[in-house]
Design a protein that fits this description.
32% of the residues are buried. The strands form six sheets. Strands 6-7-9-10-11 form a five-stranded mixed β-sheet, with helices on one face. Strands 18-15-19-17-20 form a five-stranded mixed β-sheet. It contains eleven helices and 20 strands. Strand 2, helix 4 and strand 3 form a beta-alpha-beta unit. By secondary structure, it is of the alpha/beta class.
Length: 367
């Protein structure tokens, strides 16, 4: 893209998830990805719900670290009553002012139902902003995961699913390609033609020293941190003991009433000796932040009937759930993603990842 920018004015937009399930994302809570994208000199990211996986405060911190736009016009910080990120960008490309509006169209995603997040109707948001953008720019574009279903008028182009009824460019999939949309303009900035194409990320593209340095910086720090010693254990931790350790770490670090985790959360044992971050990442399937949901005692009984195993805090172990009482339960987002009745409950994210909870617990002498 840097090479292309020397030939023709263009925008470089990231459309889709940027965070991986790799340890580097968990250890640095998204910082590495933002630093690398800064080096790549991109123009904007269109936010996905995944950007909230470490909570709204962390998302805001990452936005502050970025040298580019984070587009999500209909995702609001509930307390501040304003968009979490930027609603749109306006760029001057030679003699053409081009604007791009970013929307999220996925109201069922758990992260958009967090207590501190307010999800606004995308159609209402777009209809409010498009007239403003038309006054301020020559061309108005929209980028959204489901932009073809929004049926919006007064747009010059769309980035999202290919739409035969509009000038559109498909967002990148999982393949190692860039999707390119060329707009051919008249002297008075009217689109007279357009072309979709794919740019393969081949080895013939020249290496960029800024990006290489950014990656190397985090790779070196990441490898060093993975091998940092956390504690020493005198005997092997089997699956049962390691699962118990994880449960106790969560209960201690979050102060919740109970924990519900996947049965296959712990995949392998940990051998005796030094315990490092690397040794913890290998057996634990889930490394993101946990969700804390407030549910009633009646709902607890229903969950138990559905064979969900609940591990209670020490002061509740010998008590039967009181049907009328509310309980704070820590769990994984994917475990409750399809439980729509929980979506309207008080839902928040823990302050740290599961890995961080376990390491903090071990450092404090937890057994």
């Amino acid at each position: 893209v840097k090479q292309e920018k020397t030939k023709n004015p263009c925008l470089f937009i990231i459309h889709g998830k940027i965070f991986s399930e790799e340890p580097i994302t968990t250890l640095y809570r998204g910082e590495a990805e933002i630093a690398i994208l800064n080096a790549a000199e991109i123009d904007a990211i269109v936010l996905t719900p995944d950007f909230l996986r470490f909570g709204s405060q962390r998302a805001q911190a990452l936005i502050n670290q970025g040298d580019f736009f984070f587009l999500g016009a209909n995702i609001y910080n509930r307390a501040k009553k304003r968009p979490l990120a930027q609603e749109y960008l306006i760029k001057n490309l030679d003699d053409t002012k081009i604007s791009l509006l970013g929307l999220l169209v996925d109201s069922n995603d758990l992260y958009l139902r967090l207590q501190e997040i307010e999800y606004k109707d995308p159609i209402y948001t777009a209809k409010k902003l498009i007239p403003l953008l038309k006054m301020r720019s020559d061309l108005v574009g929209l980028s959204s995961a489901k932009s073809d279903t929004l049926a919006l008028t007064d747009l010059n182009f769309v980035i999202g699913p290919l739409n035969p009824n509009s000038i559109s460019a498909q967002a990148c999939g999982s393949d190692e390609n860039l999707r390119r949309l060329d707009l051919f303009l008249s002297d008075d900035n009217v689109i007279i033609d357009y072309q979709n194409s794919v740019v393969p990320l081949v080895d013939t593209i020249s290496e960029d020293n800024l990006i290489k340095a950014a990656i190397q910086n985090f790779t070196t720090r990441h490898d060093s941190m993975l091998d940092t010693k956390i504690t020493e254990i005198k005997k092997d931790l089997d699956l049962k003991n390691l699962t118990n350790l994880v449960n106790q770490a969560i209960l201690t670090e979050t102060k919740v009433d109970g924990v519900i985790l996947q049965k296959q959360l712990v995949l392998k044992t940990i051998a005796k000796g030094s315990v490092t971050y690397r040794k913890l990442f290998e057996p634990l399937k889930f490394t993101q932040n946990l969700v804390i949901v407030t549910v009633s005692g009646k709902e607890i009984e229903e969950l138990k009937a559905m064979k969900f195993e609940i591990v209670w805090s020490a002061n509740l172990k010998k008590q039967r759930p009181v049907l009328s009482r509310n309980y704070r339960i820590a769990t994984t987002p994917d475990l409750i993603a399809d439980k729509t009745e929980w979506h309207n409950k008080e839902t928040t994210l823990t302050d740290s990842t599961l890995i961080a909870m376990v390491t903090n617990y071990l450092k404090k002498g937890g057994k």
